[in-house]
Known about the structure:
Elements: H1 8-13, E1 23-24, E2 28-30, E3 34-41, E4 50-56, E5 61-66, E6 73-87, E7 90-106, E8 112-120, E9 128-130, E10 132-137, E11 140-144, E12 163-167, H2 169-177, E13 183-185, E14 188-196, E15 205-213, E16 219-225, E17 232-241, E18 244-249, E19 254-256, E20 261-263, E21 270-274, E22 285-292, E23 296-305
Parallel strand pairs: 2-12, 14-23
Antiparallel strand pairs: 1-3, 3-8, 4-7, 4-10, 5-8, 6-7, 9-12, 10-11, 13-14, 14-15, 15-20, 15-21, 16-19, 16-22, 17-18, 17-21, 22-23
Amino acid sequence: MFKTILSVAAVAAIPAIASAHVTLVQGEAPADSYYLAQLQIPHGCDGKATKEVRVTLPEGFISAKPMPKAGWTLEVIKGKYKAEYKDHGKPVTEGPVEIRWSGGDLPDDYFDIFSVRGKFAGLAAGSVVPFAVTQLCDGAEAVWNEVAAPGQDAHDLPNPAPTVTLIAAKDMHHHHDAAPASITLGSLDITPGFIKATAPGQPVAGGFLTIANRGAEDDTLVAVEGVDGADHVELHAMSMEGDVMKMRKLPDGIPVPAGQTVELKPGGLHMMFMGLKHPYLAGETTPMTLVFAKAGKVAISLPVMDIKGGMDKHKHK
Ligand SMILES: [Cu+2]
């Protein structure tokens, strides 16, 4: 587990003047992925209103785009990166290195969020990445640029830079499936399973989950909608006939009888994601909406997992 930069206890222990530091809303992010850096400015400089916010973008945070804010003038300062990075396969050597929002007025009693989106490149999981911030007020400033040395506790710094800790995409994924939370819809308990990862060019993918009907009424999973990356979803059954594995489409859906648990699993009932627009990659999570005849609709996310066998063996028309 990673430490958050500022615990609640630490805030409470520091008296009035530094009652809160500038922080990032999301303190963890997967390495080599997009990140929305949302900087929370909790107060002014020594009681004075903030008129300008500057953030120095860290090396390895490329192709940045700030979010404009009403009442503030936006300035993007560009420069050379220290290294060459790849963005969508193209080399990138320069881009935004500092963002300034100026001409605004953020009273000491209010807080606000300043956002910039970019992509982490070339930074390993475990990196603690600082976004140094300077607040300019009338005749005063607050600088948040201190970075903890190895072995030092960031809590001991009077003016720490807000930081984000990069984690492996796999760790993110494990965060999700460590406790596969069931989702309740009426008398249905739905436990997420997974989507089987696909190779480039593979047209279909199988999806799996478990539905328990705790009620007294039969229900039916009739459709799956709104799946990113697939044209549509069909509900299928698979069974052995002799020594041949046969699959059939279930146009009326998958029944979920009262008091029973129905498991969609490799080699049996499954969701079939048809017309894939891109491969499903292990470690990703795909949201979708399940539609039941009686219970209605519910949103769910399934992790993509690299599991061999099962779906590879048979053909779809
Ligand atoms: Cu199928």
